[in-house]
Amino acid sequence: MNVTLWIVQILLAAGFVYSGWMKTVRIESSKKTWSWVKDVPKTLVVLIGIAELLGAPGLVLPWALNIAPVLTPIAAMALAAVALLGMMFHIWRKEYREIGVNIFFVVLALIVAIGRL
Residue 55 CB: number of other CB atoms within 10 A? Predict the structure, then answer.
């Protein structure tokens, strides 16, 4: 189970780093990839990206370094909330095709949160 959780943590962290990077550093490229980025204030998109970039290391580092490992499930729950809010946003905009990634991130984050409690 421990190995499985590590794999999930690393995959989830990588996914949030990619997503956060696209929303903060490559925002113009994001406008071409994700249609919703054009309709949301740039500041909000960047703030979401920063939250994802700050949360991603929290999925791995506290547990790996055994420094306040309780932060790993907290980070997982926080990122699950970010992904859940994103899913609700896409549902509100009737972008049903977009919610698959959000569901995937929510499920993986909850697996980490529950598995590391």
Answer: 24
